[in-house]
């Protein structure tokens, strides 16, 4: 099956729904790169949608962990040790949960078990990618798969990441590392993007949906 890879959603529910209209689950696996939550206006509803999609399309969906899911997970486990999340969108997200009358702990186990990456023979997909300093098994490492900001290295597979915003709203391909960055700043009022690839990594299409004004501000 082909792949439909979606960048950082950050609470932009209506924008995410519009982008999902372009996904064909009969022919494509949906892979979302993490950072479903924080900064946008609808983090609880985005989590619920992702959870329900995974329940209804178990063989056709993969939701990866982003650094914002990790921070949320750590806060829910220990609010004192995880208080850094509150200054990175967590306070707003907790307020949203309170407004809709949902306990965020409802999703804590699901978030805990989100994978750090997805790969096959041709592709490696993660939130922030593999640099020369990366470690695959430590989600807290500053140069690891959830936090890396350093240039990616050529690992012999095509990498697809989000995490580092592309403020011009355009996904970028880096030929030196054979990597795509598709975080196009949905929470910044720009757009949410998806990359359509074959299972061997052949480029097919970029799909971008402008951020719905209901999702930000």
UniProtKB/TrEMBL annotation:
Stretches assigned to the Calcineurin-like phosphoesterase domain: 3-178
Biological processes per GO annotation: RNA decapping
GO molecular function, one term: bis(5'-nucleosyl)-tetraphosphatase (symmetrical) activity
SUPFAM superfamilies found in the cross-reference section: Metallo-dependent phosphatases
Cellular component, GO, one term: cytoplasm
Pfam families the record matches: Metallophos
PANTHER family, sorted: METALLOPHOSPHOESTERASE, ZINC-DEPENDENT ENDOPOLYPHOSPHATASE
Name of the protein in its database record: Metallophosphoesterase
Organism of origin: Mariniradius saccharolyticus AK6
